[in-house]
Amino acid sequence: MLPLNSLWLGYMLNGIGKVAPPSLSPQCEKICQQMIKAEYIGAKVSITRSKCPSYYGLEGIIILDTKCTFKIISKDNVIRSIPKSSCVFKVHFGKFNLEVFGKDLCIRPAERCVKKFKTFNIPKL
């Protein structure tokens, strides 16, 4: 799955590079909008917060993105299904680590790319 992750990094550099350079300066809101609307298959993620303590600290590469779950494969070659609504994900993007609330991603990936999101609202777990 590491080649899939390198393809995803190229996809994100291409998408965010059109908005702003990856220095995350004044156009942070546009970059956040791009990250929420992006495709996550191939992304390396770790779980930073969760309602279920057994999910905390898990990390791996996303192999399937559904409406309510991510399926990730970890270093020990185990596929785990993680619910989006109860977790906060840290997306490893090159030198940057961006936190994404799972509640913002609880939409089908095809519908997520056309929806407008408010960036000032911080949801509770």
Automatic annotation (TrEMBL):
Highest rank taxon of the organism: Eukaryota
Q: Which PANTHER family match?
A: RIBONUCLEASE P PROTEIN SUBUNIT P29 (PTHR13348:SF0), RIBONUCLEASE P SUBUNIT P29 (PTHR13348)
List, in alphabetical order, the GO biological process terms annotated in this UniProt record: rRNA processing; tRNA 5'-leader removal
Q: Which InterPro entries match?
A: RNase_P/MRP_Rpp29-subunit, RNase_P/MRP_Rpp29_sf, RNP1, Rof/RNase_P-like, Rpp29/RNP1
Pfam families reported for this sequence: RNase_P-MRP_p29 (PF01868)
Location(s) in or outside the cell: Nucleus
Q: Which GO terms describe its cellular component?
A: nucleus; ribonuclease MRP complex; ribonuclease P complex
Annotated GO molecular function terms are: endonuclease activity; hydrolase activity; ribonuclease P RNA binding
Q: How does it assemble?
A: Component of nuclear RNase P and RNase MRP ribonucleoproteins. RNase P consists of a catalytic RNA moiety and 10 different protein chains; POP1, POP4, POP5, POP7, RPP14, RPP21, RPP25, RPP30, RPP38 and RPP40. Within the RNase P complex, POP1, POP7 and RPP25 form the 'finger' subcomplex, POP5, RPP14, RPP40 and homodimeric RPP30 form the 'palm' subcomplex, and RPP21, POP4 and RPP38 form the 'wrist' subcomplex. All subunits of the RNase P complex interact with the catalytic RNA. Several subunits of RNase P are also part of the RNase MRP complex.
Which keywords label this protein?
A: Cytoplasm, Endonuclease, Hydrolase, Nuclease, tRNA processing
Chain's role: Component of ribonuclease P, a ribonucleoprotein complex that generates mature tRNA molecules by cleaving their 5'-ends.
Q: Which SUPFAM superfamilies match?
A: Rof/RNase P subunit-like
Protein name as annotated: Ribonuclease P protein subunit p29
**Coiled-coil residue windows:** none
Family per UniProt?
A: Belongs to the eukaryotic/archaeal RNase P protein component 1 family.
